[in-house]
Model the fold of this input.
Amino acid sequence: MPPTRPSTATATPPYPSSRPGSSRPDSPAKSATANSSLILRKQLMADDRPTDTLWEGAILKARLIFPPLTPVYNTGARKGEVCVSILHAPGEDQWGYEDAGERWLPVHTVETVLISVISLLSADVPDLNSPANVDAAKEVREDYPAYKKRVKRLARRSAEEAYD
Done:
């Protein structure tokens, strides 16, 4: 889904670059679990946070355990899965919603995935054309003030729980 406005997101983590697992100052923290799967963690805050959006002021934790992502209430997220075009299998979209260039390419990084998630959350009115979360899309269409109130409540809660 193309961003509705340019993203001000950066990949600068909120911790020193000397953190174990960081290979560069702008890389997210990395850790291996007992089963050796790669977990990438990043806290979206400061310059990463969307401004002038329903999610303004939120402090969101992102933990990428490939493939599951942290859930949010949005038309592009359902049952803990975020629907971001650049994570879709390469090639042509069988339903014709996406160009091949919008789908997975080897040039994508954790940073570009996180920027895509930030872009997904930055739209005051999310994409209703092919929603992953039909309930959220229905609420946007039928009762936008209730949707807006729910998202703002979740944004506040995320900020309160950011350091738990």
Q: What stands out?
A: The first strand starts at residue 29 and ends at 32. The beta strands are 29-32, 38-44, 60-65, 77-78, 81-82. Residues 29-160 form a domain with the Ubiquitin Conjugating Enzyme fold (CATH 3.10.110.10).
